Structure formats: structure tokens, C-alpha cells
Amino acid sequence: MAVKKSELYSSLWASCDSLRGGMDSSQYKDYILTLLFVKYVSDKFKGVAYGDIDVPKGGSFDDMLALIGDKNIGEKMDIVIAKLAKANNLRGVIDNAHFNDEEKLGKGQEMVDKLGELLAIFRDQIPDLSCNRADGDDIIGDAYEYLMRNFATESGKSKGQYYTPAEVSRIIANVVGISKIKKKSENFSLYDPACGSASLLIRTAEAAPFEVAIYGQEKDIATAGLAKMNLFLHNKATAEIKGGYSTFSNPQFKHIFKDEKSDEQTDDSRIRAFDFAVVNPPFSDKNWTHGLNEYGRFDGYNDSPPQKNGDFAWLLHILKSLKRNGKAAVILPHGVLFRGNAEAAIRCAIIDNGYIKGIIGLPANLFYGTGIPACIIVIDKENSKEREGIFMIDASREFIKDGNKNRLRERDIY
Q: At CB < 8 A and 24+ separation, what contacts does 344-349 make?
């Protein structure tokens, strides 16, 4: 019998309730999502000889359940997770939440009771996840995004940076053109330089008719961990996510130079180019120049992006990161279409090059992190020299109210 999403979501949210009191949602999300990951991989891969994940002895969800009532439950849960992380090269990814933290989870019996209740909810209310697909849906992956969406809503503007609404991600996947690729042998690549939880990468990759190589960079290490777990849950464990570095000071994906004499490989000074790129970067980032290394990203565009606003810096980074016929979709504040001075000069250069294929104006208050209206810049380098116009869509009034946010309807996406 298929698992109802609503029931699964309710159980996961109940597990959040069991943690409330000692921390805000920006912290307890790490505990819930870590347990979701451990239960998922345990259900799916425990005892499987050649699975995507190796579930070692003492490193499964069952080993956690055996700790209910143990006076050292928090310490021993951390040990279980550490074993799973070590066996799969996931240190720093799934072990960021510390279940023995007395400040967050209480001391003595309080911690024992709280963690026991949390594990019991996962045991009793969340079903076996070994076969998680039903009616074409990726139940656990969708549940993961459901939690992140709710965490973003609860956390407010300062904590919503890791989630792009699914409806917007689907539009990006539709307009970037990845669904039209045909030659599987070409090994197409997809890149996001500010990937957050990887929801945008996942939605775009799922629109491709076959598997594409996925690459992402995320400055925040904890959020990069969320991205890696999210990709695992969506059966995209081969994705390469780099965390902990700014895209502008230390871009992690550069061309590889191979020394023919020594057969050693090193990064050279050029940004790597991809077939497709998508990004929902921090809007109007005032700190983007910290430690800046340009790598020629701003050459040939009449001016450099203003120091206190990184919107065009992201757009130019994307252009530098595309192959000769590369395609991209970039979410930016609506103001990039009109602002003057250096941004106007850069905008003219981009248009003169014919790189912009289309612009979609989105409604205000769609995103978790800002209420300002945004737009999607659709980039297509293929046949850019012959391009004579820009296709423009004003969708600013196409939405419904959903609580304190606006949301796109199904008819608005296609």
C-alpha cells in the first residue's frame, strides 16, 4: 500500500515538535534531517552488498533504536552516525548535528527522554523506506524538501537561503532547455555555483531525458551537507558538491591541466565550463568582493560589478562558466533590468553579445528570504551572434496567496 505523503509529513513534523524548546528551527532541522537520512539509507541499503551506501555494523538506524532508554543515548547516537559517516566518506556531511549537546537537548534524564521520544516517532510513525517510490513520486526526497520549506518559513528571512520553492525550480528546469538534449554520449554537465540545499539542481537534473553530471558549490558548510544528503535521497549520489568556499574568492571548479610527463593533474587558472547552469544566488550580496579572485570573469563587459551589489557578478560568473553553446537560467532581483551606472554598462554588453534569450518577471514574495520581486534571466550562448531580440514574459500577477507567501499555480509553470 502506497504511503500517503500527508501522513509522512505529519510524522516528520511531529518529530520536530519533540525537539522544540531548546533550540530554534535553524538548529533542530539538522537533527531531523540527519535522522531522516540515517533511516532512509538503513532501510534501503542495510545488508545490501553493493549499494550506494555502505551501512556498517553499529552504524544503522536499528543501532540507534537499541539506545532508547540508555543513559548515554546522545553520546552513543553520535558514535552510530560517525561509523556511518566514516564508512562512506561523509564526515562533515551527516555528522554536523551533535546528539550529545546538553545546551540544545537538555541534561541527564531530559536528554534521554527527548531523544527516546524522537527515535520512537521515527520507529512507529515513519514506514519502511526501502521502496520509497509510489505513483511516480520520490516520497523521501519530497519529504526532505517539505521539511526544508517549513524550516525556511519558520526561520524567517535570515534562514531561508537554502531553499528555492519547487514551483520556481520547475520553471527553471523547463526554460533552461535541458529536457531537449538528445545525445547521451556527450556526457552533459549541470552546474550551480550557489547550490544551497541542491533543490534547484535536483529539479533541473530530473528534467533531463538521461543522467547528467551534477556539480555544485555552496559557501556554507552545513548547507553543503544538506545538499549532499538531499542528492543522496534523490538517488544522485555521484553529484560533486564543494562546500566551505566563496565562489568569488575560491571557485572550486576549474579546468584540469594534465602534465603528460608526470601524468599528474592540477587545476589551472581558468573557470571550468559546463553545458548547463542554474542558480538562485543571494540577492544584492554586499560582501561578494571579500577575497575576490577575478579569473577573467568580468573581462569584456565595459565595467565591473559594483562592490556593494553582487547581482551582476553572479550573472557574469555564470556566463564565464558556460561552454560555447551553453545554456543557463539565473534568478535575480527585478532591479537588474533597470539599474544604471556600471550595471547598465554591463547589461548593454551582455545584450550586445546576444547572450540573453529571454526574461521572465516573477511575482513578489515568492522566496524564503526576501519579499522583493525577482526575474529569471534565460541565457543561451548557442547562435547568440544571430539573436535579434529577447523574449519577455511578465508573470508578476500570476500567483495565489499561500499563508504569508505567494505561490505559483500549476497553470503558471507551463
A: 345/301, 345/302, 345/303, 346/301, 346/302, 346/303, 346/305, 346/312, 346/316, 347/312, 348/302, 349/300, 349/301, 349/302
pLDDT digits (tens, 9 = 90+) for 50-86: 888 899 999 999 999 999 999 999 999 999 999 999 9
Strands 189-192 and 213-218: parallel
CATH 1.20.1260.30 residue spans of the chain:
5-151
CATH number of 5-151: 1.20.1260.30
Residue 367 or residue 159, greater confidence: 367
pLDDT (tens digit per residue) in 238-261: 999 999 899 999 999 987 665 555
Sign of the CA dihedral 283, 286, 290, 293?
positive
Q: What is the dihedral of CA 209, 212, 218, 222, to 10 degrees?
A: 80
Question: Is pLDDT at 157 greater than 50 in this prediction?
Answer: no
Q: What is the CATH number of domain 156-413?
A: 3.40.50.150
The label of the residue with cell 526526497 reads 141
Q: Where in the chain is the domain with CATH 3.40.50.150?
A: 156-413
